[in-house]
Amino acid sequence: MFESKNRLFLLLLLVVQFGFSQDKIPSLQKKGDKTQLIVNGKPFIILGGELGNSSATSMESMEPIWQKLTDMNLNTVLVPVYWELIEKEEGKFDFSLVDDLILRARQENLKLVFLWFGSWKNSMSSHAPEWVKLNQKKYPRIKDDKDKSHEILTPFSENNLRADLQAFQKLMGHIKEFDQKEQTVIMVQVENEIGMLPTARDYHTLANAAFKNNVPEALIKYMQKNKQNLVPEFFEVWKKNGFRTSGNWEQIFGKGLHTDEVFMAWYFAEFTNKVAKAGKESYPIPMFVNAALNAPEKKPGEYPSAGPLPHLMDVWKAAGNSIDFLAPDFYNPSFKHWNDLFIRQGDPLFIPEHRFDASAPFKGLYAIGHYEALGFSPFSIESVTDAKKEPLGKIYDLVRQLTPVIEANKGQGKIDGVLLDKESQLEIIKLANYEFTFKHDYTLNWSDDAKEESWPMSSAIIIQTGTDEFYIAGSGVVVTFKPLKNTNLNVGILKTDQGIFENGEWKTIRHFNGDQTHQGRHIRISVGDYEIQKVKLYTYD
User: Fold this and answer.
1) For 166-208, what is each residue's pLDDT tens digit?
2) H/E element holding 28?
3) How far apart, in Å, are the Cα atoms of 228 and each of 92, 97, 254, 501?
4) What DSSP state is assigned to residue 349?
5) N-to-C CA span, the chain
6) Alpha-carbon distance 227 to 221, whole Å?
7) What b-and-e string marks burial along 238-251, b requiring 16 or more CB atoms within 10 Å of the CB?
8) Which of 482, 396, 377 is nearest to 431 (CA)?
């Protein structure tokens, strides 16, 4: 998984066998040290929103939602596809709702990321069809350490795997036939927030037998090959037990919940990779899995154990290469911390789900700037009252205009972003020959009242387009400058224009000077304003 040679080989094989080529279907490609999503032959940034879990169960339910999505300047909607609705009877498929969603998305000029609610959704198997749920003997559930079953299909059952795999493969085959030419569906999430509850591992008889078996050779080989690049948490688990390379799970990793979780992660990952592989055999567009983030004070099983989490990233990668990347879902404030963990092995970042709170728009811009992310998507996007007034739409409009500039400079060390609030009032960025100090806009107001009031989150993206030329876009920032090389020089603002992009061409709306630049001393975008400024700097004695 994630290895460029493997992906290239798979792509060439698919071209030969099935006639797929990179410009004919959505795909991922490397540019510099980052990854681009290519849609309809062009780089694409997902300005997304994920629907609430039940909103897309009918077109009638969706009818009042579409206008909200376009009012917030979305270009992509993350939409569940429910196994229980497309295969109500075993082997009989109804894709009419899928087709209707695709057709309406095209009408609204929106792309879709489908979320496969198959075997697991938020750990549970709530979206499995009735014929699966009612036949526990054929489609067994997990058991906890007290031998109690829970509404979670066990990944150790071949019947469970075949049922999910066949449905997903049929779905992807249908999407290819119905949508390949238009490329409305641009990615697919396989399952949703996979994880084991309420214990760290499954205690079904099939699981217990697997636990006593030797650790699979594929995992051992991966660990040996990537020993120096394993994530540190997993490396330490292996190291603590002497870097053993043969034996069962407890012999290699030791006894404890950490081993139970590693064991379970392997079988969740193996199952999910097989499902994704079958889907890609039908239509190999990008596929990912998402993670419910674990809380540091909780133990595996108290949080959804064994999901595609950073400390288990190597286990998920070792299980197969059909999943293109792992993605975090955010319902905690540690945004930078978790994103740093997900990208530390050079993988792309996509945030398919973030709590739709006041911070979401600014975190989205920061992710696209600092991490050069594939995209961003708040959850329950339809929950707003007045979509046209949402800051998310204003941020998305800035990114939409800047997308060609962002993608032209992606992966070249020419893009960065800042995220500021009352606790983090200042960030420094170094680009080209300059050091940029970004401060929260409220730092300009030193009144006692301002010090006491709450500060809204603010953020900005900066893109270098020339030796001395930059675009700065966002809201609520003040920017000053220093030279990087000759610190005896001063930096001045040669020119600042506030403007927009129309049909890909820059159009100046206002030339800024005087008070707008503090007589040439800073660039400012006030809280509540959402702007793009084109800046040219120079140095003087």
Assistant:
1) 999 999 999 999 999 999 999 999 999 999 999 999 999 999 9
2) strand 27-31
3) 48, 48, 21, 46
4) -
5) 53
6) 10
7) beeeeeeeeeebbe
8) 482
